[in-house]
Amino acid sequence: MAKSEIAHLLVFVGLFLSYVSSEIQFETCNKNLKRDRYVSRNNVNSSCGCDESRKAPRIITWSNKKRKCSFMNIDNDDVVVFTVATNDTDGFRRYVRSARVNGFDDKLKVLGFGEVWKGGNVRKYAGGGHKVNLFKKALEEYKDDTEKIIIFTDSYDLVFLSDLDTILEKFKEFDSRILFSAESNCWPDKSLASKYPSVARGKRFLNSGGIIGFATDLYSILSYREIEDSDDDQLFFTHIYLDPELREKHKIKLDHKSEIFQNLYGAVADVELRFKGNDAYLQNTAYNTVPLVVHGNGISKIVLNYLGNYLAQAWSPEEGCLNCWDDAIELPKNKPENYPVILIAIFIEKPMPFLEEFFEKIYTQTYPKSKLHLFIHNHVPYHKDVIDNFIEKHGDEYKSVKKILPDDRIDEVAARNLAMDHCLLKKCSGYFSIDAEAHLDNEHTLRLLVEQQRGIVAPLLIRPFKAWSNFWGAVTDDGFYARSSDYMQIIHNERRGLWNVPFISSCYLINSTIIRNKETRPSYSEGDLDPDMAFASANRERLIFMYVSNRLEFGHLVIPDSFDTSLTNPDLYQIFDNKLDWEKRYIHENYSKNFEEGQVPIQPCPDVYWFPIINTRMTKEMIEIMENFGQWSDGSNKDSRLRDGYENVPTRDIHMNQVNFERQWLYLLKEYVRPLQELVFLGYYHDPPRSLMNFVVRYRPDEQPSLRPHHDSSTYTINIALNKAGVDYEGGGCRFIRYDCAVTDTKPGWMLMHPGRLTHYHEGLIVTKGTRYIMISFVDP
Ligand SMILES: *[C@@H]1O[C@H](CO)[C@@H](O)[C@H](O)[C@H]1NC(C)=O
Ligand SMILES: *[C@@H]1O[C@H](CO)[C@@H](O)[C@H](O)[C@H]1NC(C)=O
Ligand SMILES: *[C@@H]1O[C@H](CO)[C@@H](O)[C@H](O)[C@H]1NC(C)=O
Q1: What is the rounded distance in angstroms from the CA atom of residue 367 to the CA atom of residue 469?
Q2: Residue 590 near ligand 3, beta carbon < 6 Å
Q3: How many CA atoms lie less than 13 Å away from 444 in the CB half-sphere?
Q4: pLDDT tens column, 380-429
Q5: Are 289 and 178 within one domain?
Q6: Which of 584, 586, 590 to mutate for ligand 3's pocket (most ligand atoms within 8 Å of CB)?
Q7: pTM of this prediction?
Q8: Which numbered atom of ligand 1 lies nearest the CA of 518?
Q9: Pocket (CB within 6 angstroms of ligand 2)
Q10: H or E element: which one contains 5?
Q11: pLDDT attached to residue 41
């Protein structure tokens, strides 16, 4: 039974060891240059699939621009892939990447790049005519080229899942001259639904997000009627498709069963993410097809983001995260002058346990302080001292420190805006927002996040032993929490990588270009949403990706829920909610050595064992709690705190339940004392240990200096010294009469453990000077 407790501690130690070794892992990984990986993968996977008789070269790399592979007279060189994208958004980068890993980024022609978008907000309203006009203009060049095949798709919400040859081959099978993707919604004009030809199986209605066809036919239908930039492109194409004459003439067809194009809106339940060997692919289970292009139209964008974490060689079961290496940089340790300037914005919005440790972990980040500005918003008067101490001690080392205090009466939303303004004022390159609950146990976190080079990226932080983290894997249509199917695998680190998710909070790095641009600057207020919900919601709305990384362990979240600052030393009461932090702060640093193989427990007297258990911080805080409470018993036999009102061997003491520490104390007995008992008194198991009498005793020459010989009403007794013999007091100690053996040089935080009755008749030796405090429990009376 003790084993499990030890294991628990070992896990804790292991956690910290893994932080230490984290850097090494990162650097080894970095050696796998991403380009090599793509080349080698394409050699294996991306062969044309055409057989030898067609004389196609089979070994190709994505950088080989001259590749040819023909199917039934369609030559790869006769294909142009068009899209319209006015901005270099995260989605656009994902789209280009998917073309690149599939070997045809050289075929991309991006229309409208850098232009002002006139097609309206197509997420909310109809629109997109601008797109059609740009396309038409671009097609003029090819309008008489009877060989040319054109692929025209959206880009911000679309990912290619296969190479061009496979797409062309499939297109050929349709025996069509223009093929549109299909969806289950008739949009934007529902009244046109009845005009559509019926289909036995498959999606019935046209979607304009994916088109493939011959240039001549496409140019011809685009010229058929005019469209305003602000008109709806899908409606435009729908009218063409619904014209039987045009449909016949240009052999216009819809991809009803997602043989090429998978639209996700209204079809999320049709698809499954699957793995074949080392590759992720999309399976349409409704029509038993394997789509080659996936489009997250409408609100299905979040599902596309999820799928995009895996598809198009983004992640593989064997190699893990592949897209992590895209754009990543390395910040050399010996060149701190090259590090981008970051503003660390710290938000203390509510009372928070273990705030000192929070600041220590900010301080120990391996990022040159000469490149760091600090901004601290403190909303909690209780925390003033910790912050003041930190700034006094370390403030000078940072480029600058700005502090907003409770008296400034600035609320959270205003403070977050102020912090971003301050970042711009200081010409920051990155904005690192961190709430006081986020503990960065990995000292390299900030550097690693900068090296990752994403617009917004968060380190994965979890509440230890809980399923609660600082991200959501999915979100409901109305913006609330939903669990993605990979959520548990991610928080348990069974899948490591960089995940595009719909919600992050607590800690994240934002590239300042996002803050600088009015259209993308983070917003923390929206209706009555909490600031973090508003932040995520605005980013989703603006199609700004939020990544969370669990490539390494970064840290954890502290739980503030039961933190009660009206107590003296409230952190000491946090043993339940924040056990790991509590252990780190209060358990003796050599506690786990008690359990080491070959460790012989110290035995100062026969069957009296002596262990380090709590540290001097806890002993000091325990005394403070008691003295602050101050109601020491009077040392008489009459004791109203006991059931029978009578104490046979009275001391001056305060019971744990008088300071509301009883529950915590019993848990400490169970978690940290019991395993030691099982170590030395073999064969006795009692879990949880019971104890009615838990108290701190005070011995003073002018009060009660000693205790007469007695037995304890316990199976075993523990006696933890809270202060230092020879320093805080003189004399004192515990003498076991049967053995004529005394322990007098007691050490703070060390525990004596001995049987309660019969053999261990004992007395408290006289304190001649000062005050001696000990903490006592009679276990299993
Ligand atoms: C898109 O690009 C245009 C032109 O470069 C720019 O004015 C606009 O702010 C950008 N919008 C976003 C959302 O980045
Ligand atoms: C922000 O983005 C720019 C341009 O992509 C990059 O040069 C800069 O290093 C980024 N800043 C940080 C802190 O990552
Ligand atoms: C823990 O053990 C080490 C090695 O024996 C010792 O140097 C150190 O002082 C001990 N720590 C405390 C707090 O006693």
Answers
A1: 25
A2: yes
A3: 21
A4: 999 999 999 999 999 999 999 999 999 999 999 999 999 999 999 999 99
A5: yes
A6: 590
A7: 0.89
A8: 9
A9: 340, 429-430, 450, 453, 511, 513
A10: helix 2-30
A11: 32
